[in-house]
């Protein structure tokens, strides 16, 4: 299995790079699964629901968050509805979202 992990997408330029280059990069590398760290995708202060959706629509199979996970308040409800977003596992169980995800790779295999 080939996993492409893109760390710390930062701001507008990072989102644009994902939107413009992820699909051809995935093809060139023959990546089965793409994981994108999105915690700074909205100007270095977390990720908005809209920006998270943009990254997913651009071909990310799942998004990871970090210490800025909930800087953007609209993500609080979105992360509850979107199972492909993973908040830090060491957050309290009561925190919004999930600390893990099961996603399908491009071959239909389930990956935790």
Offer a few descriptive terms.
3 helices, 112 residues, alpha/beta, four-stranded parallel sheet, two-stranded antiparallel sheet, globular, Purple Acid Phosphatase, chain A, domain 2, 6 strands
Task: Provide a compact summary of the structure.
The protein is α/β, with parallel strands linked by helices. The protein is built from three helices and six strands.
How would you characterize the overall build of this protein?
By secondary structure, this protein is an alpha/beta fold. It has a single domain, classed as 4-Layer Sandwich (Purple Acid Phosphatase, chain A, domain 2), CATH 3.60.21. It has three helices and six strands. The strands form two sheets. Strands 1-2-3-4 form a four-stranded parallel beta sheet, covered by helices on one side. Helix 2 (49-57) links the parallel strand 2 (33-37) and strand 3. It is globular. The mean pLDDT is 96.
Strand content: 15-25%
The CATH fourth-level homologous superfamily = Metallo-dependent phosphatases
Write down the overall mean pLDDT. Answer: 96
What is the strand arrangement across the widest sheet? 1-2-3-4
How would you classify the helix and strand content by structural class?
alpha/beta
**What is the CATH-assigned architecture?**
4-Layer Sandwich
Number of domains: 1
- Could you give the order of the helices and strands? EHEHEHEEE
Helix content: 25-40%
Query: Under the CATH scheme, which class?
Result: Alpha Beta
Q: Please tell me what the overall shape is.
A: globular
Main β-sheet description: 4 strands, parallel
Low-confidence stretches: none
**Rg, Å, rounded:** 13 Å
How many β-strand stretches? 6
Distance between the amino and carboxyl termini: 13 Å
By DSSP (H or I, 4+ residues per run), the number of helices equals 3
């Amino acid at each position: 299995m080939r996993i492409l992990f893109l760390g710390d997408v930062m701001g507008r330029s990072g989102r644009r790079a994902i939107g413009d280059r992820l699909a051809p990069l995935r093809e060139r590398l023959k990546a089965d699964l793409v994981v994108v760290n999105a915690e700074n995708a909205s100007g270095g202060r977390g990720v908005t629901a809209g920006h998270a959706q943009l990254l997913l629509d651009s071909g990310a199979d799942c998004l990871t968050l970090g210490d800025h996970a909930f800087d953007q308040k609209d993500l609080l409800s979105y992360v509850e509805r979107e199972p492909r977003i993973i908040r830090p596992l060491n957050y309290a169980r009561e925190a919004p979202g999930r600390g893990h995800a099961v996603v399908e790779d491009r071959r239909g295999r389930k990956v935790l």
